[in-house]
Design a protein that fits this description.
mainly alpha; 13 helices; MetI-like fold; globular
Length: 306
């Protein structure tokens, strides 16, 4: 009597539409088409970026000189500079970093390590994730109402501090989410080991979890500050000036920043101002790269230490 394979009987009993057909050639062809499409998209993006950078460099490099960096804006393009905008951007980013880093990291640590899992915590988490995708102009309207009008005695109205607090609101969700993801990447065995040795939760977070998560937290902070330095809409909404012929004296001083100054030059019809705008874009990219390089240096330093 011939013995038949039960698996073969089961497969033969299934209708043809439910049988698995291993068409490997078709799958490999689909994989190749998808890979070609992805690499084509990447190549197009890189080509467009290179063309834009070359166009900006060709137009702006001849205009870059010491007079351009140390002069105030002017109605004459050959005499105009971006000293006030450059100083305003530096003031703005330093203030934003000082305020946003402890607030964002502290909120992320509390939500991830100390907060209980209840409806209030979940409600806060959902809103933080949603706030990360809100258009920046909405933060500008919020900053105009809260920081410029309601808190005018503290911020000084349309001032550096009001602009910095508006940008802090803009990037806080990004820093909080990045902090929580970095903390989740730390193995729970380290926490359990600390608890087994008698350490409190705060001691475990401070001495074990946070130092290991710090490089990831700094990476998220770099991305958040990179977004903040290029923002224009929220600062225009709260009333940042487009023409300033003096340097900020304190956090309550009127201000302008590099993106606003570049926007002002681009909107003018004279070709000389367009050249100034290209040179301003180069300066903005240099400031951004210098800021990111410093943050990456700190991140790598902490990675080697821990």
């Amino acid at each position: 009597m011939t013995t038949r394979d039960p698996q073969a009987l089961e497969q033969s009993a299934q209708p043809p539409s439910q049988q698995f057909i291993a068409n490997l050639d078709k799958r490999y062809n689909i994989d190749r088409i998808f890979a070609i499409a992805v690499w084509t998209s990447v190549a197009i993006a890189i080509v467009v970026l290179v063309v834009l950078l070359l166009d900006v460099l060709i137009d702006g490099l001849p205009r870059l000189n010491w007079q351009f960096l140390t002069s105030f804006p002017s109605r004459k393009p050959e005499q105009a500079g971006l000293l006030s905008a450059l100083a305003g951007s530096i003031w703005m980013m330093v203030t934003v970093a000082i305020i946003s880093f402890p607030l964002g990291v502290g909120a992320g640590i509390f939500l991830e390590e100390f907060a209980e899992d209840n409806w209030l915590t979940r409600f806060i988490e959902i809103n933080i994730n949603n706030l990360a995708g809100v258009p920046s102009i909405i933060y500008g309207l919020l900053g105009l109402m809260v920081f410029v009008r309601i808190m005018s005695p503290i911020t000084g109205g349309r001032s550096l501090l009001a602009g910095a607090l508006t940008l802090v609101l803009l990037i806080l969700p990004v820093i909080i989410v990045a902090t929580r993801e970095a903390l989740r990447a730390v193995p729970d065995s380290l926490r359990l080991g600390g608890f087994a040795l008698g350490a409190t939760r705060w001691q475990v977070v401070r001495d074990q979890v946070f130092p290991i998560a710090l490089p990831g937290i700094l990476t998220g902070t770099i991305l958040a500050l990179s977004r903040a330095i290029g923002e224009t809409a929220p600062l225009i909404t709260i009333g940042a000036l487009t023409f300033i012929s003096f340097l900020p004296e304190n956090l309550q001083s009127p201000f302008t920043v590099l993106p606003i100054q570049i926007y002002n030059w681009v909107s003018r019809p004279q070709a000389g101002f367009h050249v100034n705008a290209a040179a301003g874009i180069i300066v903005l990219m240099v400031v951004l790269l210098a800021m990111n390089a410093f943050a990456i240096f700190l991140r790598n330093k902490f990675q080697r230490r821990f």
